Amino acid sequence: MPRIAFEDFLPGATRILGPVTVSKDEIIAFAREYDAQPFHVDEAAAKESFIGTLIASGWHSCCINMRLLADGLLLDSTSMGAPGIDEVKWLKPVRPGDALRSRMTVLESRPSNSRPALGFVRFRFELMNGGDEIVMTQANTIMFGRRDAEPVVGRGPSAPAAPPPPRREPPPVSANPYLDDLVVGETDELGSYTFEADDIIRFARQFDPQRFHVDPVAAKNSLFGGLCASGWQTAAVWMKLLAAHRERTRAWARAQGETPARLGPSPGFTNLKWFKPVYAGDTIAYRTTLTGKRPSASRPGWGMATHHNTGVNQNGEEVFSFDGAVFWE
């Protein structure tokens, strides 16, 4: 029986989770799979990059914070997952050898009006390195069951998953790769990804080992009613396909005899929403739409591109979205 329930979260309460030390091999392994930009995977190339040294993917930092939260709290709680992330700010680079801790603060709690058996708790997380510098902040709400309430069990997928659509490779490039020539409102199709059960479990065991992500039997008795992917895996796969799309764009530019633009890191994102569970067997099509661009006041030759990003399942249902930004040459 979990010890921690909705009633145990008092606004203002704080807790330190961790530490955990992140190695160079872990940084490179995550980035090779989900965010294969040069400053995450290649020490030599990283020296010539925006940052000048090898750093962890921001999505890796989010996943590390998720694992600290799971080990330090969620696995002994009535957690029922999260509907999304209000905001993440990547404030400082995470480098090999950093010992990371997360300071968790309860901001507010409220019972659900529609489901009396659960409540919502809003948190702020501050991920800190060994020098007590805050490298990342995150604000989001998590659902918890109320003490002694009957378990809330979902129905799972409403129907057998439809056959995935025919695989369609996205175009190699849709615009000139430099910031000045990007077209606001243009959408890039990034490709699709099928979430298999083994893949869902493998990711979750490493970063988000809640029962509905790692145990098909236990998942049937959860709010989701079936094995579903961690929301962080849904996001990491978006980054995986985006990085591959950007590499195709750079390769296309080089083939035309052009020098492709460099991209820097992202300062963070807002309004990440997990609208529907991504169940084993679901195929998600991802896309990104440029929503704005502006020159950087502090970095000559660079600017900031903003984008809205979505994932849609094989039934045409939007399962995921967020608003992001990236430094762009």
Largest β-sheet summary = 10 strands, antiparallel
The averaged pLDDT comes out at: 93
Which runs of at least 5 residues are low in confidence (pLDDT < 50)?
A: none
Tell me the span between the first and last alpha carbons. Answer: 53 Å
How many DSSP E strands? 10
Fraction of residues in helices? 10-25%
Shape descriptor reads globular
Rounded to an integer in angstroms, the radius of gyration calculated over CA atoms is 20 Å
Strand content: 25-35%
Strand order of the largest sheet: 1-3-4-5-2-7-10-9-8-6
Structural class: alpha+beta
Reading the helices and strands in chain order gives EHHHHEEEEEHHHHEEEE
Helical segment count: 8
In short:
This protein has eight helices and ten strands.
Structure description:
By secondary structure, the protein is α+β, with helices and mostly antiparallel strands. The chain has 8 helices and 10 strands. It has helices spanning 24-34, 38-41, 43-47, 58-72, 197-207, 211-214, 216-220, 231-255, and strands spanning 14-21, 84-90, 99-111, 118-128, 134-145, 187-194, 268-274, 283-295, 303-312, 318-328. The chain has a 10-stranded antiparallel sheet, with helices on one face. Strand 4 and strand 5 form a beta hairpin. Helix 4 (58-72) runs antiparallel to helix 8. The radius of gyration is 20 Å and the shape is globular. The N and C termini lie far apart (53 Å). The mean pLDDT is 93.
